[in-house]
């Protein structure tokens, strides 16, 4: 890879990492707006909780992004940057310019995204009346006789 392009990408990654770390440092954990929830409407409590969870999710995403950037910078130091971590083929420069933290080629990046499916999907089936469900239904359900006749 061209040293000028490598330097440009490294500088871009370092700036991005610096911005993310600054945002993480400035980020405050949302505090409850009230000392007592006794007189609060449940919707107000739910709004506070939603705000807290949203901020936590954003911080987690920023942390994950910072880790990806650190891995890309580490690959630059080791001399493996620009080669797919899975197959070893050269990653096209267009991909690296568009996404400097990429460590895999497009084909393997898509494969990685497929691996991120929730583990629950392995257990649950699309058929709502699976064997597991029927077994549980023996212990009772809220269905009325009219529901079962359909």
From TrEMBL:
A zinc finger (dksA C4-type) spans 84-108. Keywords: Metal-binding, Zinc, Zinc-finger. Residues 19-53, 112-150 are annotated as: Disordered. Residues 19-31 have a biased composition (Basic and acidic residues). It comes from Lysinibacillus pakistanensis. InterPro entries: DnaK_N (IPR037187), Znf_DskA_TraR (IPR000962). This is Molecular chaperone DnaK. Residues 79-107 form the Zinc finger DksA/TraR C4-type domain.
């Amino acid at each position: 890879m061209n040293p000028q392009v490598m330097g440009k990408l490294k500088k871009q990654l370092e700036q991005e990492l610096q911005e993310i770390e600054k945002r993480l440092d400035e980020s405050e954990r949302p505090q409850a707006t009230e000392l007592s929830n006794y007189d609060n409407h449940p919707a107000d409590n739910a709004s506070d909780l939603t705000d807290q969870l949203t901020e936590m999710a954003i911080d987690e995403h920023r942390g994950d992004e910072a880790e990806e950037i650190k891995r890309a910078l580490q690959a630059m130091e080791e001399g493996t940057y620009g080669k797919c971590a899975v197959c070893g083929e050269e990653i096209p420069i267009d991909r690296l310019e568009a996404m400097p933290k990429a460590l895999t080629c497009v084909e393997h990046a898509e494969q990685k995204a497929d691996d991120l499916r929730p583990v629950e999907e392995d257990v649950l089936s699309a058929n709502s009346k699976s064997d597991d469900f029927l077994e549980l239904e023996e212990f009772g359900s809220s269905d009325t006789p009219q529901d079962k006749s359909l």
